[in-house]
Amino acid sequence: MKVFVYSYRDFDEGEIFTRYSNEYGIELGICRDAPTLENAYLAEGYEYLSIITTEIDADLVTRFHELGVKMISTRTVGYDHIDLHKAEELGVQVGNATYSPNCVADYTIMLMLMSVRKMKRIMERANINDFSLPGNQGREMPNLTIGIIGTGKIGRTVIKYLSGFGCKVYAYDLFKHDDVKKYAEYVELDTIYANCDMISIHMPLGDSNYHLINQDSIAKMKDKVIIINTARGGIIDSAALIEGLESGKIGAAGLDVVEKEFGLYYYDLKSQVLDNRELMILRSYPNVIVTPHMAFYTDQAIDDMVHHSIKSCWLVEHGKENPWQVRCSR
Known about the structure:
Layout: E1 2-5, H1 14-24, E2 27-30, E3 48-51, H2 58-66, E4 71-74, H3 84-90, E5 93-95, H4 102-116, H5 119-127, E6 145-149, H6 153-163, E7 168-172, E8 185-186, H7 189-195, E9 198-201, H8 215-219, E10 225-229, H9 238-247, E11 250-255, H10 277-284, E12 288-290, H11 299-317, E13 325-326
Parallel strand pairs: 1-2, 1-3, 3-4, 4-5, 6-7, 6-9, 7-8, 9-10, 10-11, 11-12
Antiparallel strand pairs: 5-13
């Protein structure tokens, strides 16, 4: 079988792709650029694609279908960048890839600690030899009530980590897990909004939770709430977040993802004017940490992502059950 890989990275994925393609007997085609209508023709003759977090809209899904592609596998947990409705309409299967939850959970805890201890301000001041104290006073984790929205593998791992800090933890998810109940209390979203000093988001993005964090939900939150997002940018309304920060309602934010990040992250754009005004505004605030979608980026995670993308395609080709298959929910 043959798999065409877009956004192929020699420096961190190359050896891993070679190893797993040999293990599964797969012939690889590679393109170091993201898939576009202009380079889609490269996938002709390949029934399987492996991509990352780049937009695959209806036109691109249609073009790949015309070229004979029967499955698109994204080397990411999230799949909101793929038009699932069009894929389902055309009979193109979609798969994602899971990886160790520790990478994002570790990063989430880091953003929490950096936000609560005002680390951006401390580091920026220290760089200009300002070692003064005013404005740098932080808070201690055991004194905080923290809300975790989404208790999948990553959310559950974050909750387990938080149990070691001694803080009170509330959790929200449509599907409850017994192991969460050892460390956290499941509550409704409004309870999290009203009672939590810090709220961390850990859910995939879909139509039902687009702009879940918006002007109305922020108004329900505690004053000076800290918001952490290592999930998907579209879960937070950037305009509402900015308004909350400027009014002082939101005390700080730690963001590894933002809206409209497609086409920006993972590219060297230092000589360009970026078409994302909200990102520029958020980066300018002393109480907002913005990182370029890096929470996943560890050696173990990259190995898992490539392996599961390759294996997902192999399972479909051999008519076996595919645990990474993504179905459209209408």
